[in-house]
């Protein structure tokens, strides 16, 4: 299994989107990453 880490920019985007009230599924669709990656 390949491990591809989130970039600092993606981490910041997740932070901003969560602060804005976006759900995990909405963030997954915006960043085009898997749910487990976003939830970690």
Automatic annotation (TrEMBL):
Kindly name one Pfam family recorded for this protein.
HTH_38
Q: Where is the Transposase IS30-like HTH domain?
A: 5-40
Top-level division of the source organism's lineage: Bacteria
Q: Which source organism does the UniProt entry give?
A: Undibacterium danionis
The record's annotation in InterPro entries points to: IS30-like_HTH
What is the name of this protein?
Helix-turn-helix domain-containing protein
């Amino acid at each position: 299994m390949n491990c591809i880490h989130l970039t600092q920019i993606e981490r910041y985007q997740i932070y901003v989107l969560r602060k804005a009230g976006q759900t995990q599924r909405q963030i997954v669709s915006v960043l085009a990453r898997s749910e487990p990656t976003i939830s970690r």
